[in-house]
Design brief:
This protein is an alpha/beta fold. The protein folds into three domains: 4-112, 3-Layer(aba) Sandwich (Cobalt-precorrin-4 Transmethylase, domain 1), CATH 3.40.1010; 115-220, Methyltransferase, Cobalt-precorrin-4 Transmethylase, Domain 2, CATH 3.30.950; 232-271. It contains eleven helices and ten strands. The protein has a five-stranded parallel sheet with strand order 3-2-4-1-5, with helices on both faces. Strands 6-7-10-8-9 form a five-stranded mixed sheet. β2 (30-33), α2 (36-45) and β3 (52-54) form a beta-alpha-beta unit. α3 crosses α4 (92-101) and α9 (232-244) crosses α10. The chain is elongated, with a radius of gyration of 28 Å.
């Protein structure tokens, strides 16, 4: 039975091409490429002669039925993007969904992806992260998207083109605050690979003085959870509320100690100055 193969291609360094990816591209009946000229150079480098067909954002509506028909005829199809994983921030996702609906096997051939490549070398938390891709280019939708992420504790990953980088960093600083930590990565795996880290305010200054070049990954540190500040007045108010509910000083102190992780003895001393049922 035929299958759609999602073949990862290098994001820069051709040595990141896998043996499996080369084999699949050589044996597939057809390769659907985002840019056949770009992919043609890759194929030539590895001696791959499989024919190509273009499949991109501007032709996907009329090209998708043709590709499905190709697969239904029992011929394998390999899908590639210009760099990285097909289906991530490109129309390949539509073809995958259509194949799943038609019960055509979809087989991923893994490889490099810019977002995770940048994340693992960023120094930011890798325990939890969220891939946001490209932000909306217009100011209002972009602002709304960022506002929805302002309290997200995960590391946030964005993609950005060089000509929009400064505007995006400025918008990030306005929403997340000038002191939020950011890491930018450009030209990943290439000769001029570069990482920059600092605050969003410093990033804006940096790229005002140095024109951005190359495709960028922007990584934003997640919102840090801050421990609540328990003033003496607030603790007394909490204790009084518990006492008013009928708890004894001892029980109120014990319950509040479990919530705040503060010493029960200290809370009991505060409770002695408050009115309680046993008074």
């Amino acid at each position: 039975m035929s299958a759609l193969y999602l073949v990862a291609t290098p994001i820069g360094n051709l040595e990141d091409m896998t043996f499996r990816a080369i084999r699949v591209l050589k044996t597939a009946a057809l390769i659907a490429a985002e840019d056949t000229r770009h992919t043609g150079k890759l194929l030539q480098h590895f001696g791959i002669t499989t024919p190509q067909i273009s499949y991109h954002d501007h032709n996907r509506q009329f090209r998708l039925p043709y590709l499905l028909d190709h697969l239904r005829q029992g011929r394998d199809l390999a899908l590639v993007t210009d760099a990285g994983l097909p289906g991530i921030c490109d129309p390949g996702a539509d073809l995958v969904a259509a194949c799943r609906q038609a019960e055509i096997p979809v087989i991923p051939i893994p490889g490099a992806t810019a977002g995770l490549t940048a994340l693992m070398a960023s120094g930011l938390s890798t325990e939890r992260f969220a891939f946001e891709g490209f932000l909306p280019p217009k100011a209002k939708p972009r602002q709304e998207r960022l506002q929805s992420l302002i309290s997200d504790p995960r590391t946030l990953i964005f993609y950005e083109a060089p000509h929009r980088l400064l505007a995006t960093l400025t918008a990030l600083a306005e929403v997340f605050g000038a002191e939020r930590r950011v890491v930018t990565a450009r030209e990943l795996t290439k000769l001029h690979e570069e990482f920059w880290s600092g605050t969003l305010e410093a990033a804006c200054r940096h790229y005002q003085n140095q024109a951005p070049k190359g495709e960028f990954v922007i990584l934003i540190e997640g919102e840090r959870e801050t421990a609540p500040i328990f003033t003496e007045a607030r603790l007394q108010a909490e204790l009084q509320s518990l006492l008013d509910q009928g708890l004894s000083r001892s029980d109120a102190s014990r319950q509040l100690a479990q919530i705040t992780q503060l010493p029960r003895r200290r809370l009991y001393q505060l409770a002695l100055g408050l009115s309680a049922p046993e008074d």
